[in-house]
Amino acid sequence: MAEVITMPRLSDTMTDGKVAKWHKKVGDAVKEGDILAEIETDKAVQDFESEFNGTLLYVGTEEGGSSPVDSVLAIIGEQGEDISQLKGGMLDEGVSEKKEEQKIDEEHKTENESSSIEETTAEIPAGVEVITMPRLSDTMTEGKVAKWHFKVGDEVKEGDVLAEIETDKAVQDFESEVKGTLLYASVAEGEASPVDTVLAIIGPAGTDVSGLTLGGAKNSASKPAATETSATAETSQEKTETPSAENSSTERLAISPLAKKMAEDKGIDVQSLKGSGENGRIVKKDIENYQPETSAAKSEKNAVSAPKNSEAAAPAPMNFVQGEDSETPNSQVRNIIAKRLAESKFTAPHYYLIVEINMDKAIVARKEINSLPNTKISFNDMIIKATAIALRKHPQVNSTWRDDKIIHHGNINVGVAVAIPDGLVVPVLKNADQMNYNQISAAVKDMAGRAKSKGLKANEMEGSTFSISNLGMFGIETFTSIINQPNSAILSVGAIVEKPIVKYGQIVVGNVMKLSLACDHRVVDGATGAEFLQTLRTYLEQPLTLLL
């Protein structure tokens, strides 16, 4: 019976795949484990192995062509087998039915959730208000209740802080817009729920709201069942697939190219494997099903068989105090930091430029500026000012990549990375090029202080067009940063250190600082980034040029 091969999903963000190269043509014999084609995803080109034996009867996507995930890629069967029904519509219909079933399931789930909300809304008693999880930032998808300020049964007044909601950027107070008794709290302290789901119910004391909470309880109860079913299915699949690796011959080593590469990447000794492919050939699923316990057992065996004289020469065992591992649930901020930095690192092609700055004149200039009444600026303030002015001359560095265009920002908004206990946040100095030293200093101190006490508002961390990270205060001389999307560059500032330099033909002690610029190569070319750093170096080494 012919087997239908569909376009595989080779990455979590893949929606369609391009056939970079076919390794087989229609009519060729195909063995399990053979590389059928090279598939180009949104991230890389990967070998795609056949899981079946037979003849390649049909190719659904030509070399260089693209097709959606789960669409027909090829058909493998017996030589001369009639596949006219598959090609004539039954296949497409089957695939469509499958997709339609998935779509119906999703719509049915959505309808169930929507109907619960609609039924709840229709039966809301007089004077009762349903409070939903608010969207406190433009990127917020769910919120975590950091703390409840009221418990069920408490009287709530309009304007009272009902709870502290932790978003993907900060912890913010959430005020009640109605007055009454807190009748129901759907999210426990420390738990999270999606935006627009029921957070609380407020109304007259003694009001029965069980009908409003019933739908949510049913929906919640259904989730573990689905998880359990999925886990059972995975366990069953593992039990079914694992024995197949034990049925092959060990007389010689036969391995597919993809399986060999996967084994090398994972450090697996293929000599210890038994293949499940034809004639004992090691294929992709053998590598995927590899159990590392084999290696552990091997190590234990080697340890047991160690020479006796080595045992005699072994030193006496040392007694160590054993520590215990602990787990800390990730905060919403930490999860978002992890997600965004990973997206930036693996989406934007980073490259790095490093320049050394002589800070002698900047040190003198700062001392003179700080001698003025009510003035105290830091080197970081001077760097922010110089960077903002340099961005005026190099607008390409002050840009954002979009799939079909580059956005050149009209304003210069500098984000300044601030470390907080949960990770880091990046408050933004809007129109930094138009601010003087005192304004920059005051703004940075204010926002850094409020960032550490979780007092920043969401709009104070949005809209940056360029970012700066400074670790110089920790004695770090140079480092590189991950670009803060959607910026196209980030400046990393190191410590000012004394070192020998050549000045006017003489070796003298100078004050040197290193700057590192990480750039998105889709927007900022190497020469553009270098010219920007050259301008910035001039401003810092000759502070008076900022006045020109």
UniProtKB/TrEMBL annotation:
Residues 2-77, 128-203 form the Lipoyl-binding domain. Residues 94-119, 217-253, 291-315 are annotated as: Disordered. Residues 95-112 have a biased composition (Basic and acidic residues). Its EC number is 2.3.1.-. It comes from the Bacteria. It is an enzyme of class 2 (transferase). Its cofactor is (R)-lipoate. The keyword Acyltransferase applies. GO terms for molecular function: acyltransferase activity. Pfam families: 2-oxoacid_dh, Biotin_lipoyl, E3_binding. The keyword Transferase applies. Residues 254-291 form the Peripheral subunit-binding (PSBD) domain. Keywords: Acyltransferase, Lipoyl, Pyruvate, Transferase. Residues 220-235 have a biased composition (Low complexity). One of its GO terms (biological process) is pyruvate decarboxylation to acetyl-CoA. GO terms for cellular component: pyruvate dehydrogenase complex. InterPro entries: 2-oxoA_DH_lipoyl-BS, 2-oxoacid_DH_actylTfrase, Biotin_lipoyl, CAT-like_dom_sf, E2/Pdx1, E3-bd_dom_sf, PSBD, Single_hybrid_motif. PANTHER family: DIHYDROLIPOAMIDE ACETYL/SUCCINYL-TRANSFERASE-RELATED, DIHYDROLIPOYLLYSINE-RESIDUE ACETYLTRANSFERASE COMPONENT OF PYRUVATE DEHYDROGENASE COMPLEX, MITOCHONDRIAL-RELATED. Belongs to the 2-oxoacid dehydrogenase family. This is Dihydrolipoamide acetyltransferase component of pyruvate dehydrogenase complex. It comes from Kaistella treverensis.
